[in-house]
Amino acid sequence: MTRMTDRRKQDPVRPVLTTKYGSLYNCDCMELMAKMKDESIDCIFADPPFNLGKDYHNGSSDNLSREEYLHWSYLWIDECVRLLAKGGSLFVYSLPKWAYLLASHVDSELTFRHWIAISMKSTFRRGRRLYPAHYAILYFTKGQPKVFNRLRVPIPKCRKCNREIRDYGGHRQYLNSRGLNLSDFWDDTSPVRHRKLKFRSSCELKVMIPERCIRISTRKNDVIFDPFGGGGSTYEAAENSGRHWIGSELGDCQPIIRRMETYSRQKKAILPSRVREIFVM
Q: Does some domain include residue 91?
């Protein structure tokens, strides 16, 4: 039987785009991850399909049974755990109905940090259930985090009168002039980009969301991996933050390429050395 490391060397995956900081691959994420070294990634941000029956035009099914979807999810999560460096961070964006099961699976391998709730700005009732009002980001680290940057957000103001919304119990004068500490409840953004800013017809995550995760958990020149490229929001966030990145997308990569041609600082013909060292050559 051919050893895994031998298979990796015999069947290289070629990037469809390289920039000053990263590289994009048009392939199944499991195929790409099989060619990456253990404990080589500083931060992983994953926004997988939610199994809602959507057509992503990539030949894969988004309408699996519960058991099939969870089996597939556990496979790619296990690979992410293998790739994550000691002290590195894993962020998984999902619906609460899946997030608690994914969290239970990864809890035996990584250290739980936060369940971050991202407010839905508009939604609708779903049968005999409570009004769904948030998406979840699971935040785990491999042991104690090697990087934790405390972010601040602007003090919220009314859109109409421009006055501050809260009085902070009469202690407003004691607040930090740089803003409020970022909490695990994000109600200052919406999950989906406005259609005027999108590069594809399907949903695209707002850049602010992966950008915050990257800024919380990494330093400049660290390596970010996003196995589900989608519209490329993570890669834009990493590029503009001075972080290296690796991405895969099973479907059409043209929306991501257009995005990076718009926002990338510099296209390159060869892999950046920091990215190249991640792969088994």
A: yes
Q: What angle do CA 258, 219, 23 make, to 5 degrees?
A: 30
Residue 82 near residue 37 (C-beta atoms within 8 A): no
Q: What tens digit of pLDDT does each residue of 49-65 get?
A: 999 877 666 666 678 89
CA 166 – CA 152 distance, rounded (Å): 17
Per the structure, the complete domain to which residue 115 belongs is given by 16-148+183-276
Tens of pLDDT along 7-53? 444 455 889 999 999 999 999 999 999 999 999 999 999 999 999 87
pTM above 0.85, yes or no: yes
159 assigned to some structural domain = no
- Is residue 76 included in any domain, yes or no? yes
Q: Is 166 contained in some domain?
A: no
